[in-house]
Amino acid sequence: MASLLLAERVLTMLPAPGSSSATQATAAGVRIPGYLAFMNSWSWTVPLWQAGVMIAEHEGQTAVADMQAVSGRVESDELLAPLRRFMHSELYQDEQAYLSAVAADMLKGGPDPGINVPVAAGLDRFATRHQMLVARAQPSSVVQVAESKMAQRIEAVALPVLLQADADRILHAREVLADVLEGLWDAYDDLTDDITGGASLSEAAAAYASAYEERQAEITDGGEDDQVRIIEGTVTINAVRMPSDVVLRSSLAAVEGLTGRQKSAPVALEGNLPAMYDPIASQSFISLVIKPLGARPQPRRR
Predict the structure, then answer these.
(1) Could you tell me if 245 and 121 are in contact, meaning their C-beta atoms sit under 8 angstroms apart?
(2) 40-95 per-position pLDDT tens digit
(3) Which of 27, 221, 235, 277 is at 20 to 30 A from 153, Cα to Cα?
(4) pLDDT of residue 20
(5) Rounded Cα gap, residues 72 and 109, in angstroms
(6) Do the Cβ atoms of 106 and 12 come closer than 8 Å?
(7) pLDDT score at 270
(8) 183 contacts 207 by C-beta, under 8 angstroms
(9) Residue 301, helix vs strand vs coil
(10) 294 - beta bridge partners?
(11) Does the pLDDT at position 121 exceed 60?
(12) What is the Rg, in whole angstroms, of the alpha carbon atoms belonging to the chain?
């Protein structure tokens, strides 16, 4: 939710047959019931896709190829062998089975690592190639905690956001805050360009927070009639640098911990040449770790 309000655009992996085409995705829903339920769960985001805030491709590319590259690396790199028993490489040979599995995984609680790891690592790899920021929730699982130990802190800010709202309300808030949002985008671009942007980010965050407070009534005006109750709150956004394959490293560390072979230091993979060499593996990306601090529900009309 914070990303949908604060980011210039939000790219995600849209599981669809053949490509990220919405038409193909709709057609798949007709023949795959589980996939239809998944698409229905995303239906509230349609205005965001139509407005270009949510996207599934950049420069004509999607993260699907990166997900497949990650899966190939797990299958070929002996250092990652402990992860293979969790993977479902056979799914990628059958489109219907793949779409059903991904849909089921996203609809249920407690993700299947065989689905979640390639998807998450694929998005990280895509972000690394295109110098994009990756949004992450505050660490809660064993794997996420392992990830956090491999992160290099850059800068942290606290920002007011919409924690709950419908798509039209998010688009309205983006319009109201358009001028200060551009300042945030520029400041975060400085971070991805390896420019020392701590001061500019702090200034942009302060300008945004001040504008949000001043325009709060305009942001929430008429919200009592929205389909979804508006909940406002503050989040901390901690920018950290992570290895491009941090998901694989943290997953491997978690597996070794479960089997009693946990290492004293984070798993290092880049110094060992895998059977399938991945030039992206030695690079890094910036992740924004987002943690909610509090919530203020807006009153509903009775």
Answers:
(1) yes
(2) 888 899 999 999 999 989 998 888 888 888 888 888 888 888 888 888 766 666 66
(3) 277
(4) 46
(5) 26
(6) no
(7) 52
(8) yes
(9) coil
(10) 234
(11) yes
(12) 20
- pLDDT at res. 144: 83
Residues in Cβ contact with 99 at an 8 Å cutoff, skipping those fewer than 6 apart: 15, 16, 17, 28, 32, 34, 35
- Rounded to whole angstroms, the Cα distance separating 207 from 170 reads 19
pLDDT of residue 106: 75
In single-letter form, the type of residue at position 185 comes to W
Q: For 132-144, write each residue's pLDDT tens digit.
A: 999 999 887 788 8
The pair of structure tokens assigned to 87 is 């993977």
Could you tell me where the DSSP H helices lie in the chain? 2-6, 22-31, 33-41, 46-50, 64-76, 95-107, 113-130, 142-148, 167-176, 178-192, 198-214, 216-220, 246-258
Which tokens hold the place of 68? 């497949």
Inter-CA distances, 228 with 163, 166, 170, 295, Å: 11, 6, 11, 15
Query: With contact defined as beta carbons under 8 Å apart, do 125 and 65 qualify?
Result: no
Query: For 1-26, how does the pLDDT look when each residue is reduced to its tens digit (9 = 90+)?
Result: 999 999 999 999 877 665 445 555 55
Residue 288 to residue 66: CA distance in whole angstroms: 20
Mean pLDDT to the nearest integer, 241-249 = 93
Which residue bears the tokens 């219907």?
96
Query: Which phi and psi angles does 267 have, rounded to 5°?
Result: -65, 130
Q: Which amino acid is at 253?
A: A
Nearest to 162 by CA among 91, 99, 219, 87: 219
């491999």: which residue's tokens? Answer: 150
Q: In terms of DSSP bridges, do strands 133-137 and 231-243 run parallel, antiparallel, or are they unpaired?
A: unpaired
| Whether the predicted model's global pTM rises above the 0.85 cut | no
Q: How far apart are CA 66 and CA 48, in angstroms?
A: 24
